[in-house]
Amino acid sequence: MKYISTRGIAPALSFEEVVLTGLAPDGGLYVPETLPTFSKEEIASWAGLSYQDLAFNVMKPFVAGAVSDEDFKKIIADAYATFRHDAIAPLVQTAHNEFILELFQGPTLAFKDFALQFLGHLLDHLLKKRNQKVVVMGATSGDTGSAAIEGCRRCDNIDIFIMHPNNRVSEVQRRQMTTVLAPNVFNIALEGNFDDCQNMVKASFGDQSFLPEGRQLVAVNSINWARIMAQIVYYFYAGLALGAPHRPIAFSVPTGNFGDIFAGYLAKKMGLPVDQLVIATNSNDILHRCISSNDHSKNQLQHTLSPSMDIMVSSNFERMLFDLYDRDGNAIRQLMEDFKSGSMVLKESALSRARELFTSYGVNDDVTIDVIRDVFENTEYLLDPHTAIGVEAARKTRRRHDIPMVCLATAHPAKFPEAVRKAGQDEDPALPHHMTDLFEREERYTVLPQELKKVQDFIAANVRK
Q: At a CB cut-off of 8 Å and minimum separation 6, what does 315 contact?
């Protein structure tokens, strides 16, 4: 299988090349040239498979011979071996036909573990085979960083540099990153917001001349196709558990960078009967404004109780637009140029197509707290603030009540004690056993100004020989 850029200029790449490249040289994101599809009968035959076996079936067509079946099964098995729940992605019912898909059972308590544990083991396999060393550079609004570090900390051929916005992630999120003292792990606290971090990553991928000779950058942000690919699996897993493909299913997704919900869109195109996808946003509601009123303009970024969604530039939305514009790279390049100036307007035919599947809703901090409190009072189930936004958006925009609505729980509530306390809990949620000493561990990170050269100089100086 070949992969092409959303901007239509960069050459097509193989799976191995696209995993190691990240952002396309023309500034676009890679997507499969053709998408594999599964018949209703084939999907039905997967009922009862373990998460690992299902992952192999769903992802195998994308790998297309780049990794042997035996090696690919081992990569998958190793990726999910550290998850705390045997189901990997268990479902919990919170109301009539409303379910929570717990995506926080991995080692860093966030849904990013699904993709980044997999990507870490995949990179390790590919780099050993190629006898190659690389530099991973990533930006995080909270959860990507710790999951990427956990996935790469034991990789001999990777030096990993993660930027987070200084003082704009929760203390648990920060400590999960900064207390990993492995020699190949470097944390940068940037004096800026997540979009500033992400822009530096994109600029660095565009010009890698600052790196030592023989090194290249590899992306762990959701611009890396392998992350999207791994996230498709849990849509199939939840769907099969709740009656698919014999009945349709809906999903509500707390949305920041659009990668998670784009995976749901791909699951539908591959054959899963997805009836509705809810784009759930916080006060940084650019995607909600886009879908609801064709207003894709940048506002001032707000710091909220759901920091992983404090994003104004949703990189993976470009992949969605590529499909909505019939894979016209010229049109996407123009849209992205428009957005650089502050806003872009979608053509009505594209917006209409999006609205056939997607609905959207924005939830502020006050409502988020109310939802955490109300759900706990009714069910004794404690939501984190991101998941609470997904639940509220699902309840406000739901089209059908006769099919299951699955709300993706993207993080463990222990990562966001401030929101939980504001919702009326007397004590902070307990951290899982493997993290009980988190606040006692030594931290190591470097605060840097919002200057690209200083960040790049720091990376160049710390890459191991």
A: 29, 198, 221, 222, 223, 257, 258, 259
pLDDT at residue 51, rounded to an integer: 98
Query: What pLDDT does residue 141 have?
Result: 82
Q: Which two tokens stand for residue 210?
A: 């600052």
The pLDDT of residue 220 is above 90:
no
- Measured distance CA(374)–CA(306) in Å, rounded: 18
Residues 6+ apart with CB under 8 A from 159: 133, 134, 135, 136, 184, 186, 462, 463, 464
CA 338 vs. chain centroid, Å, equals 25
Catalytic residue among 40, 60, 74, 112: 112
367 backbone dihedrals φ, ψ, rounded to 5°? -70, -40
Give the count of beta carbons closer than 10 Å to the beta carbon of residue 130: 12
For residue 128, indicate whether it is catalytic.
no
Q: Which positions ≥6 away from 74 have C-beta within 8 Å?
A: none
Instruction: Please state, in angstroms and rounded to a whole number, the distance separating the CA atoms of residues 159 and 408.
Output: 31
> Hey, which residues does 158 pair with through a beta bridge?
134
β-bridge pairing 405-409 and 446-448? unpaired
Print the SS3 string covering 132-198.
Answer: CCEEEEEECCCCHHHHHHHHHCCCCCEEEEEEEECCCCCHHHHHHHHCCCCCCEEEEEECCCHHHHH
Can you name the residues that pair with 253 across neighbouring β-strands?
279
CA dist., res. 211 & res. 216, Å (int): 7
Backbone angles phi, psi at 331, to 5 degrees: -65, -40
User: With contact defined as beta carbons under 8 Å apart, do 148 and 136 qualify?
Assistant: yes
| Structure-token match 């509500």, residue found | 252
Residue 97 buriedness (CB in 10 A; 0-12 / 13-18 / 19+): middle
Task: Give the helix/strand (H/E) hosting 251.
Answer: strand 249-254
Q: What is the mean pLDDT of residues 396-407?
A: 98
pLDDT of residue 342: 84
Which segments of 363-451 are extended strands (E)?
405-409, 446-448
CA proximity to 226, closest of 327, 51, 105, 79: 79
Q: What is the pLDDT of residues 101-136, one digit of tens each?
A: 999 999 999 999 999 999 999 999 999 999 999 999
Element (H, E) at 360: strand 358-362
CA gap 305, 411 in Å, rounded? 13
Residue environment code for 16-27, b if the CB has 16+ CB neighbours within 10 A, otherwise e? bebbbbbbbeeb
Report residue 360 as tokens.
């959207």
pTM, full prediction = 0.94
* Percentage of the residues of the chain whose pLDDT score is greater than 70: 100
